[in-house]
Every structure is written in C-alpha cells, then in structure tokens.
Amino acid sequence: MDKVRKVYSLRFRLFAIFLAVSFLPLGFFSMTVAVFIRDYYLSDREGELRRRAHVIEGAIRQGNFLTDSERAPLFAEEIGSIYAGDDFRVLAIDSRAIVVHDSNFIENGATFLSPEVLEALSGSTVSSIQDDGVTMYTAVPIFDSEYNVVNGALLLVSSIVDIYELLGSIQQMLMLLLLATAIIILVVVFFISEIILSPLKKIMRVVTLMSEGHLNQRIGLSGRDEFAQLATAFNRMNDELEQVEKTREEFVSNVSHELKTPLSAMKVLSESLLLQDGVAEEIYKDFLKDISSEIDRMDMIVNDLLTLVKFDQRDMPLMLTQIDLNQLTEDILRRLYPLAEVKNIELLHEDVRKVAIAGDEMKLGLALSNLVENGIKYTSEGGNVKVTVDADHQNTFITISDTGIGIAEDELGKIFTRFYRVDKTRDRDTGGTGLGLAISYSAVRLHNGSIRVSSKEGAGSTFVVRIPLQLNV
Ligand code: ADP
Prior knowledge:
Blueprint: H1 2-63, H2 75-83, E1 88-94, E2 99-102, H3 115-121, E3 126-129, E4 135-143, E5 150-159, H4 161-211, H5 226-275, H6 281-312, E6 320-324, H7 325-342, E7 346-351, E8 356-360, H8 361-377, E9 384-391, E10 395-402, H9 424-429, H10 436-446, E11 450-456, E12 460-468
Parallel strand pairs: 7-9
Antiparallel strand pairs: 1-2, 1-5, 3-4, 4-5, 6-8, 9-10, 10-12, 11-12
Bound molecules: adenosine-5'-diphosphate (ADP).
Adenosine-5'-diphosphate is lined by residues 370, 374-375, 378, 402, 404-407, 415, 420-423, 427, 432-438, 461.
C-alpha cells in the first residue's frame, strides 16, 4: 500500500509540476490578452461615441436648438435623422441641466445632474463607465457658434454589453485551451511517468525481494539510460556482495576445518593413550609431544587469524615511523638465518640504494618476513633466497626471489587467498597455516602498496613488494 502511494505521489507531483509550468505562463497570457482586448474595444467604442457626439453637437450648435426656443420643437425632426439607426440614447441638456431632448422621450424636461453632464457644462468632453459596468456615458459641451459660451451638454448613453459578451466568449475559448492543455499534460505525464516508473518498479521489486532475504537478485534492464546504469551498478554491487558472502562462508569453513584437524589429531592421540593400560613412559612422552605440537599449530593459526582480523580493520591507525628498509631487511634475514641454515640455504641481501619510508614497522616487517620465510620453506636444500631493496622516485620495490619449487601458473592468482595452500598435505608438513601471504598482502595494502608474483615451477619464485614513497593513508 505504502509502495503504491509513493508511486502515485511521484506521478501526482509530476502532474502538478507540468501543470504549474504550463498554466502559469498560459494563464498570465490569457489574462493579458483579455485585458488588452477589453481596453482596445472600450477605447474604440469611446472614440466612436465621441466622434458621433461631436457630429450631433455640431448639428445642434448650427441649428440653434438650445438658444432659440422656436426651433426647439424641431429638434427631433431635424437632428433625429443624424443618429437614427445608432444604438445609443441621445440626451440634449441645456445650461441649467434640464433635458431639452431625450431620444427615448423619458427624461424630457427633467433635470439631469450626472457628473459627466456637469463636466461637459464646464467645457470638457468626458467618457466614463457607469456603476452597472455595462453602460458608457459620453458627454460633450454644446458651444455657441463662436465657441465662446457653453450652451448645454450632449450626453450619449451607450450599452457596452456587447464588448463584455465578446470578452466572455474569448475567455471561454481560453478556458477551453487551458482544459485541452491540462488533458494533453495529463496524457504526457502519464506516459512520462510510465517511462520513469516502470524501471523504478522493477528496481523496487528486486530491492524488496532482497530485503526479504533473497539475495541472489539481478535487475534486468536494457538500454543505456540512467536507470540501466543504476541497474548495472546495482547488479555489480550484488555480484560483489555475493562474492563477499561466498568468501566469508569459505573462510568460516576453512577456519573450522583448520582448527578441527589438530583437534582430531589430539583426540586420537589422547584416546589411544587412554585405551591402553601400562603404556611406557617414553610412549606417553612421545604422544604428549605430538599433542603439544598440535596445540602449537592451533596457537599459530589463531594468532595468524587475530593478526588478519586486526589488519582488516580499516580504521586501525598505522603506527608510522621512519623505516630504514635496508636495515629492516638485514634484521629479518638475521632472524631467519637459523631456519635457512638448517636447509643449507644461502640468504643474500642486495641494496641497490638506500631507502627510507614512513610506515608501520611491525606490519611491514611481518609482511616481508613472511615472504622470506616462504622462500626458505619452499626452497630445497642448497638453494638461495635473495632480497633486493630498490626504489624509483615514486615507489620502493623490495624483491624476494628464491630458487625453490616455484608455483604453477594457474595457482598464482590464488595463493594470497586465506588458507589457500598449493599442496595441502605437503604444505601442512612445512608448518604453514596458509595465512602468511594473506597477512603480507593485507599489511602491504594498508600501506597503499601491492605485491606482484612471478614464478616458474621448479625454477623458483619472485615476489615484488611495491610501496609508495609518499604514503597517502
Ligand atoms: P603457508 O603458511 O602455507 O606458507 P602462505 O599464505 O604463506 O601459506 O602461502 C600460500 C601457499 O603459496 C603456500 O602454501 C605455498 O603453496 C605457496 N607459496 C608461497 N610462497 C611460495 C614460494 N616462495 N615458493 C613456492 N610456493 C609458495
């Protein structure tokens, strides 16, 4: 229900916006046109009435109908023909404001004191619309033949209803235009909102499904518009989410498996001791030694896991110090020398140049030491492991190469994965947890660096650690 309301509210808002955008100028235009037409017709009518009034006034003046009492009775007869057929009423008023002649024969002899008449009697021509809104008065002074004295006033009373009727029909047409516009807008908005809403509904459906726990959803939207781009980005995000979920599941199952193996070994060892009576002390000691080494292994795994978890916390600050990389390498090699000596492996150290960088010494030390230790672990007796420290103007490169067993090409991409070991049984015998490279990778990534590996099976491996000289973390 909520969803439906939202969808419709978008449609409604679009409709309101379109309506406002088109109605405001259209309404303004209609009003301006109506006012313009009204003013045009009114001033046209006013001009026409004044023209007619002056013609009649001229005839009255020349015929002396106001000043010569003998001629007054001839007024209608002689002047009437001038305005016969006109649809206005004519009132001739003398200087005392008494109606001498009314073409409607109503006000004859009455006093007519309208403001227009008074103004005309004082010598001005005036037009005005009466309070009823549909009657126009036009009054002109009636002069004597020398234009010196105002002998009276001529008042034309005209109906302007026809102008308002015309205006009414124009307004009606404008209203029809507005109505037609509204209908067109309604249709246009309907189609536009369909274009917008149909992909939106698709996206919403998928998001709803996902929020209900059905995670493996994809939005099927073709095209190149913003919605299609959103769908592509959404699908990519879902791919990544799925990958993260898969990696997490794998990781949990790997952790359980890795911890289960030493536990099972310990259980077998302890049970076999328990089931036998009178076991010799040496056998006890042997079994306990095995149990102890399994505990060491579990301890190693847990420690490595804790290290990884710590490195994964992106907001964990790096303990930055100035590191002399040549010195760090020297220290690592010295520490690992006993391990190499056992296998008669030569440890070589080449300083192409002196390099110092700002970094977290503990983490970088761990990353490099894991790589050198791997070199020793996966190199047979008599081989060598060489560490080279070099830099260009942007990066430092620490290269660890060995003459060991190498890594098959299709394994190269996987060795940084947690718990990944190329040869499960053999590598377990070498004492590895499968977490060393993952730790090195995390530590180097925390320094904005990278690790590249190249290898040839049977010939040896080379790991190149690149770290930017200018640390932007
Ligand atoms: P491990 O603790 O097993 O050494 P790592 O994460 O350090 O785990 O390495 C993952 C796997 O990559 C190893 O098990 C091994 O198979 C392979 N590997 C790592 N370094 C080398 C190397 N220098 N030479 C050959 N194989 C290596």
